Amino acid sequence: MGGVRIHPAHFSTGGQHIMYEKQTLPNGVRIVYEHMPHVRSAAIGVWVGVGSRYESPCEAGSAHFIEHMLFKGTAQHSASELAERMDAIGGQV
């Protein structure tokens, strides 16, 4: 992926050593993942540098409002339909 920074890193928990990768996309979105070839599922974490921490006093609450709107569905698909589709493939919203 052009323009993506990849940062191999690791941490330990209870004597177990875990290797993971961090990538920063060109738009600033940060993605952290661990490659586990022995499992047939995925867990994805996405971090975006926005939110109340970055809001001015006149924007207070905007990020929280947008967060709630993300779970309201779309014009073509209701929130429950999207959740059911995710559930059908083993996902969780």
From TrEMBL:
Gene Ontology biological process terms, A to Z: proteolysis
Keywords tagged on the record: Hydrolase, Protease
Peptidase M16 N-terminal domain span: 30-92
Homology family: Belongs to the peptidase M16 family.
PANTHER family: METALLOPROTEASE, MITOCHONDRIAL-PROCESSING PEPTIDASE SUBUNIT ALPHA
Claim: Hydrolase is one of the keywords in the record: yes
Pfam family, one: Peptidase_M16
One of the record's GO molecular function terms: metalloendopeptidase activity
This protein's name: Protease
